[in-house]
Specification:
The structure is a single chain. It contains 12 helices and 44 strands. It starts with a helix and ends with a helix.
């Protein structure tokens, strides 16, 4: 008892201190949301010593000119603080004094230099950072070619770089097509031509040629003529140049049609020699290359083939060696995961599990069998293969709870070992070629992540960045994974975000942000803004069914809300719903089916799926394919399934809407033009409904949140005001009656 009494004052002091600390924290505001920093484009040197990246906040995307989408002359590399850090010490080695527009980082093979492209005006320039001298120099390329924003590739000797550049007359050709479509004065659309006009523009914009630039002299040598290259690689022995080409034939409304694909290579000693690995074909073939690019594997009809570059013979590694049904001789269908470090083995996978086979086609073995209940089994993704080829390292994520991390599988002992598994989020793993160090982005699941350096034991995680220390003084939400059953009885998951000053026993307003399926948490700007308004926020999952997509949201979202109301957390009269893009479409459709919500907001979402088919010309056939067999899930054409298109078009049911509705659009939105969303505003106004349409003339896809800084504030303040007005409407009416 004596010890208990001695401890009590100290506990009281701790509790008081915690209360004072919480009270001193200030709300997370719209300005704060803009100020949150993240690091992107991180690139690790081969020796694991140096890391380059771009640190930026929300302002980096405010300068986009949405109206110039597909304009060949428009370059927009997002600005930020270009940094290079020493991974061993964690110190910053280099940082531009002002924000810069840099991209396409590539470390030299000896890790002594970093190549990148920098936007200056309307052009990209080839730049080199020298580690020893801590300085940047520009490589002046002979002839001053127009560079394209694409991968840079060092030659193995570190003396030259492969770059993508435009043909000398490319810009004139590309701008002629673009100006014809945008300026006219007469624009002709003719179905007898093979391509939609904007497909022709996009195809032309994809054309580049590949140059080898000598870093001492700046003299360029053309390695590949103008074409559409999907991937260009150099073999480690510097003998072969491998390249994938895409050849558009016509605009097609059917997936995987209208295009041919080819894979070829050249001997660098004879650039006139083009050797075909996979001749032009309408079926794309994906090759899995070994690290040295000396060998490659692919799958055809479920069989795995391997071949050595420069040799003609391909070997089938799996035919007649594994059966799902021995009696019927039904063979296992495989996919390729990875080459081993020695390039003597391959890791394959099938529905049954992971398999190991040597590159000669012998000793095919099932080394890890998947659990029978695959829907509940944790997700595994190969992250690394140990140098001695004994261990496989996988990222790990459970499907029912937030338990994530990494595991190691012992191929010799056939055992899985947990390395690190907890509630945190691990993402963006980078591993260098010549070091056991790895870089991760680590988050506690609620706060923005930071980079850490560790190794494959995960015993120590050394912080590399601390991008947002000021958030410790802000009120931030906490997330919780919830389960509920939709109307059909299927268990669903959702992410619930708590009001920042939450007190148990009080009923709070709720805003649902809808889209499709949500599971993983992580820092979320929108959810924090709502939590700081004193709301619960919820990202509920729905079970979308092909052919009947319009039913999913009302079946799933209302069930999730019921659960929270029944638990006494949420005020049933103060529930709002909103979504962006596809979620905006869901929101408008949802309120034609239920009057459950006090307010609803559609941000850049369509309301008429029929007129939307031709509403986004700059992205070609996307709206047709999305409706017929893509995200919209109609399951057929307008002429095959007209009633389903009618059933999922919100504007046709505007007379049923009882929920106050705000529609937010961006005038420069090339994805979901505001003219489509506008239809519901006119319909609801004609019917005497409560509706407001806010169109940001500088905005893009995302309305005011995809505009400038002033519009960003306006966007969010309007959202807050809209919910507050309608959440408190019944309270005001009741007060007036009293």
């Amino acid at each position: 008892m004596k010890n208990t009494y001695l401890k009590l004052p100290f506990l009281v002091i701790l509790l008081c201190f915690a209360s004072i600390t919480l009270a001193q924290k200030s709300n997370f505001t719209v300005s704060d949301a803009i100020n949150v920093k993240s690091i992107s484009n991180t690139t690790l040197s081969d020796d694991g010593r140096y890391l380059a990246g771009i640190i930026a906040d929300g302002r980096s995307r405010f300068g986009v000119d949405h109206f110039r989408f597909q304009d060949p002359s428009y370059i927009n590399v997002f600005p930020g603080d270009f940094v290079i850090m020493d991974v061993n010490s964690g110190t910053m080695m280099y940082s531009y004094r002002a924000q810069s527009q840099v991209t396409s980082f590539a470390w030299s093979p000896d890790s002594k230099e970093l190549a990148f492209l920098e936007q200056k005006g309307e052009k990209l320039h080839l730049m080199i950072y020298e580690v020893a001298k801590k300085r940047i120099k520009e490589v002046k390329i002979g002839g001053n070619p127009l560079l394209a924003n694409s991968n840079l590739t060092w030659t193995p000797d570190g003396k030259a770089l492969m770059v993508h550049a435009r043909a000398s007359d490319w810009l004139d050709r590309a701008m002629e097509l673009y100006n014809e479509a945008t300026k006219g004065p007469v624009v002709v659309y003719d179905s007898n031509k093979p391509f939609l006009k904007w497909d022709e523009i996009r195809n032309t914009n994809s054309l580049t040629r590949v140059l080898r630039v000598d870093l001492v002299t700046g003299i360029p040598q053309e390695l590949l003529p103008e074409s559409n290259y999907g991937g260009v690689y150099l073999s480690d022995d510097n003998q072969f140049l491998i390249f994938n080409e895409t050849f558009p034939l016509k605009t097609s409304y059917v997936r995987n049609e209208g295009t041919e694909y080819q894979v070829a290579y050249k001997q660098l000693s004879d650039l006139d020699s083009t050797l075909i690995l996979y001749k032009k074909n309408k079926q794309r073939r994906n090759f899995n290359w070994s690290d040295s690019k000396a060998k490659f594997a692919w799958v055809d009809s479920g069989y795995v083939y391997v071949q050595t570059l420069g040799q003609d013979d391909a070997k089938n590694l799996t035919k007649g060696k594994a059966y799902t049904d021995e009696e019927k001789k039904k063979e296992v269908k495989f996919s390729v995961n990875s080459w081993s470090p020695s390039e003597g083995k391959l890791l394959l996978s099938s529905d049954k599990g992971y398999w190991l086979v040597d590159a000669q086609g012998e000793n095919l073995e099932l080394v890890y069998e998947f659990p029978e209940d695959k829907e509940k089994a944790p997700s595994l993704s190969l992250a690394n293969w140990s140098d001695d080829e004994r261990y496989l390292y996988f990222s790990y994520s459970e499907k029912d709870v937030w338990r994530r991390g990494f595991v190691r599988y012992d191929l010799r002992e056939k055992k899985m070992e947990d390395l690190i598994i907890d509630h945190r989020l691990y993402s963006g793993l980078q591993r260098p070629k010549k070091s056991d160090k790895i870089i991760l982005n680590l988050s506690d699941g609620d706060m923005p992540g930071d980079l850490v350096v560790t190794d494959w034991t995960f015993k120590e995680m050394k912080p590399l960045t601390n991008l947002n220390p000021w958030l410790a003084d802000k009120k931030m939400t906490r997330s919780e994974l919830i389960s509920y059953r939709n109307v059909d009885g299927k268990e669903m998951k959702g992410i619930l975000y708590y009001p920042v000053d939450y007190e148990e026993g009080i009923k709070y307003p709720l805003v649902c942000e809808v889209y499709e399926t949500f599971f993983a948490n992580g820092y979320n700007r929108n959810m924090n803004l709502f939590a700081n308004q004193g709301y619960f926020a919820l990202r509920p999952s729905v079970d979308l069914e092909m052919g009947y997509p319009g039913e999913a949201w009302v079946k799933g979202i209302t069930a999730a809300i019921n659960k929270l109301v029944d638990e006494g957390k949420v005020d049933n009269d103060k529930v709002g719903v909103q979504g962006g893009s596809y979620g905006g479409y869901a929101t408008s459709l949802l309120i034609t089916q239920t009057d459950r919500f006090a307010a609803a907001i559609n941000i850049s979402g369509k309301v008429n799926i029929i007129s939307f088919l031709g509403d986004s010309p700059k992205i070609g056939t996307r709206n047709y394919t999305a409706a017929e067999y893509g995200q919209d899930r109609i399951g057929g054409t307008l002429w095959d399934e007209p009633l389903k298109y009618l059933a999922t078009t919100a504007v046709l049911y505007a007379d049923r809407i009882k929920t106050p509705h705000m529609i937010m659009t961006g005038e420069g939105d090339w994805n979901v033009p505001g003219t489509n969303s506008r239809e519901l505003y006119y319909a609801m106004r004609r019917l005497g409904k409560d509706v407001v349409w806010v169109n940001y003339l500088n905005g893009g896809h995302g309305a005011g949140a995809a505009s400038d800084e002033s519009d960003f504030h306006d966007h969010w303040n309007r959202i807050f005001e809209f919910y507050e007005r309608h959440f408190n409407k019944k309270d005001s009416e009741k007060a007036e009656k009293d």
